[in-house]
TrEMBL record:
Stretches assigned to the Amidohydrolase-related domain: 63-415
PANTHER family recorded: CYTOSINE DEAMINASE
Phylogenetic lineage: Eukaryota, Fungi, Dikarya, Ascomycota, Pezizomycotina
Species the sequence originates in: Paecilomyces lecythidis
Protein's recorded name: Amidohydrolase-related domain-containing protein
Listed Gene3D superfamilies: Metal-dependent hydrolases
C-alpha cells in the first residue's frame, strides 16, 4: 500500500484558471485535532529566482482537483488477469455471455482473491490521481456477503489514500427468478451495515417490466428509510420497443417525497443507453421534470462498457459495417439540457469490459473522440466530469464544477509534471489542461495529494527535483 505524508506547502506550481505565466504557492493547513482534513489555507504568488534567464512557467507542474470514480465495480475487476478464471475469457462478446461468465466467476470468488484484485484496482486508481470512488460490491445468493466484507476491508486498508464509498449492489434479480427471495433477504441485511452508504440495483435484469418497477420502488423505499444514496443501473439497451424505465424512476422518486424525506442524499442513474434513442422533445421533457421537481439526480455515462456492449437487439444479423453503439452524450446533457451528468470507468478487465484501465484521465481523453468535442473548453468540461462534477454527483463535498483551486477547499489534488517519459532524455511540455486531457501522461508524471497528504510513490522526489523551483514541503 502507498504511504502518505502531510504536505505543508506546494511551492511553485501552476493552477487552472490563472494567467498562463503565473506561478503560485499552495499552503496546506492540517487541523491539530484531525490530520485527515487538510485544506488549502492560502494561495499566494510565487516569484522564482531567475539566475539563468527567463522563467518558463510551463516547465512547472500543474495542480488540479483530484480525480474521482463515480461508478466502478470493485469485486469484478481484473477477473481476466487472474489465472483461476482463465476458462471464462470472452468468446462472443455478447451481453448474455458476460452475465453468464460473471455468474460463473462469482462462484469462485474467495476473500483473498477479492482483496488481491480489489487492491490492484484501488492502487492503480490512486496512482492515477483518484482520491474518491463509488465502488460497487455485489450481494446475492452466489457470493452472499463475501464481496461486501472484502469491500469493507479494502475501504479500511486504503483509508489514508482514497475514500471508498461502498455500494451494496444487487446485480441479480430480487423480484423474479428462483433466487429472488434469498437475494432480497441478503440485500435487506447488507444495506443496514454502517459501512454501506449507497443502495444499488439493476432493474433491467428482472423478468418483466412489472418486476423491474417493483425493484425500483423497493430500492427507493429502502434508501429513504435508511438515509442512503441510491444508484440504479438503468435502461441498458438500444431497443426502441422497450419501455424506458427512467420515467418510472423520476415519477416514483418525486411521488415518494425524496427531496424532503432524504435530504442531502443523491440518486445516480448509470448506463441509460436507451435514452440515446430519445427525441429532443423527450430530452426536454425529462430535463424539465427533474428540474421542476428539484430532484438530485445525476447521470453517469460509461463509454468503455457502453460502446463494447450496448447494441440494438438485431445487431448480430446486420452487415459488419452497420453495428451501431450507444452511450450517453454527456457534454450535450450538461450544456443543452442543463442535466447533471458525469462519466465513469465502470468495469475493468472482465467480460463486460475487457479493454481499458482504471485511469479517469484516459477516459476523459476517450470522451474527446466519442463526443467529438475538441475545444479547450470541452477538454476542461470532460476533466470536470471525472473530477469535481463526479465528486459532487456521488454526494461528497467540494465544488460541483470548475477546476480552479480555492482557499478553504479540501486539498485533494493531482499534481501533473512534465518529465521525460521516453527514457531518451526528451521531455515534451504540456501547457494547458486540454493538453493533459488530449494526451494524458503516464502515472510516472503524476503525484496525488489526499486530504493534504502526499501519496508517496517511488519517483516522487525525482519528479519534484526535475521541476525547476518546485518544492514539496512535508510536515
Amino acid at each position: 500500500m502507498l504511504e502518505a505524508k502531510s504536505i505543508r506547502t506546494l511551492k511553485g506550481v501552476r493552477i487552472a484558471g490563472t494567467p498562463p505565466d503565473s506561478l503560485w504557492n499552495l499552503n496546506i493547513k492540517h487541523p491539530e485535532e484531525d490530520d485527515s482534513k487538510g485544506i488549502i489555507e492560502s494561495i499566494i504568488p510565487y516569484s522564482p529566482p531567475t539566475p539563468h534567464g527567463e522563467v518558463v512557467a510551463s516547465s512547472y507542474p500543474l495542480v488540479l482537483p483530484a480525480l474521482t470514480h463515480p461508478h466502478i465495480h470493485l469485486d469484478k475487476a481484473f477477473v481476466h488477469c487472474a489465472p483461476e478464471y482463465a476458462d471464462l475469457l470472452p468468446s462472443t462478446g455478447s451481453f448474455q455471455e458476460a452475465l453468464s461468465y460473471t455468474s460463473q466467476a462469482k462462484a469462485k470468488f474467495t476473500t483473498p482473491d477479492l482483496l488481491r484484485r480489489g487492491g490492484w484496482l484501488v492502487a492503480e486508481s490512486v496512482a492515477s490521481g483518484v482520491t474518491a470512488m463509488r465502488a460497487f460490491v455485489e450481494v446475492d445468493n452466489a457470493v452472499q456477503l463475501t464481496c461486501l466484507e472484502a469491500g469493507i476491508k479494502l475501504k479500511e486498508t486504503w483509508k489514508d489514500s482514497c475514500y471508498v464509498q461502498l455500494v451494496c449492489f444487487a446485480q441479480d434479480p430480487i423480484f423474479s427468478g428462483p433466487h429472488r427471495d434469498e437475494n432480497r433477504r441478503l440485500m435487506e441485511t447488507a444495506i443496514r451495515k454502517p459501512e454501506v452508504e449507497v443502495i444499488g440495483t439493476t432493474p433491467y435484469v428482472e423478468a418483466t417490466i412489472s418486476d423491474a418497477k417493483q425493484n425500483i420502488e423497493w430500492a427507493i423505499d429502502r434508501a429513504i428509510e435508511l438515509g442512503k444514496h441510491l444508484d440504479f443501473h438503468l435502461d441498458y439497451n438500444l431497443d426502441g420497443d422497450k419501455e424506458a424505465l427512467i420515467w418510472h424512476v423520476v415519477s416514483t422518486i418525486h411521488a415518494k417525497g425524496w427531496t424532503t424525506k432524504a435530504p442531502g442524499k443523491r440518486v445516480m442513474l448509470g448506463h441509460c443507453t436507451r435514452l440515446t434513442l430519445f427525441s429532443d422533445e423527450e430530452w426536454t421533457r425529462l430535463a424539465s421534470l427533474i428540474q421542476d421537481y428539484g430532484l438530485p439526480i445525476s447521470f453517469v455515462g460509461l463509454p468503455t462498457s457502453d460502446i463494447y456492449m450496448a447494441s440494438p437487439p438485431d445487431v448480430s444479423a446486420s452487415p459488419p459495417q452497420v453495428k451501431p453503439r450507444g452511450t450517453l452524450h454527456v457534454p450535450d446533457m450538461i450544456r443543452k439540457y442543463g442535466l447533471d451528468a458525469v462519466i465513469g470507468v465502470n468495469n475493468v478487465g472482465n467480460a463486460f469490459t475487457p479493454w481499458g484501465g482504471p485511469d479517469p484521465l484516459s477516459l476523459a481523453c476517450l470522451g474527446v473522440g466519442i463526443y467529438q468535442r475538441g475545444t479547450q473548453a470541452d477538454a476542461e468540461l470532460l476533466y470536470e466530469c471525472v473530477s469535481t462534477r463526479a465528486r459532487a454527483a456521488i454526494g461528497l463535498d467540494g465544488p460541483s464544477s470548475g477546476l480552479s483551486l480555492q482557499e478553504r477547499q479540501r486539498a485533494d489534488l493531482l499534481i501533473l509534471y512534465n518529465v521525460d517519459e521516453t527514457g531518451l532524455g526528451i521531455s515534451r511540455a504540456r501547457h494547458t489542461v486540454a493538453e493533459f486531457v488530449w494526451d494524458p501522461p503516464g502515472r510516472i508524471s503524476r503525484d496525488v495529494a489526499y486530504t493534504g497528504r502526499l501519496v508517496i510513490k517511488p519517483f516522487a522526489a525525482d519528479r519534484a527535483a526535475s521541476s525547476p523551483g518546485t518544492t514539496v514541503l512535508l510536515v
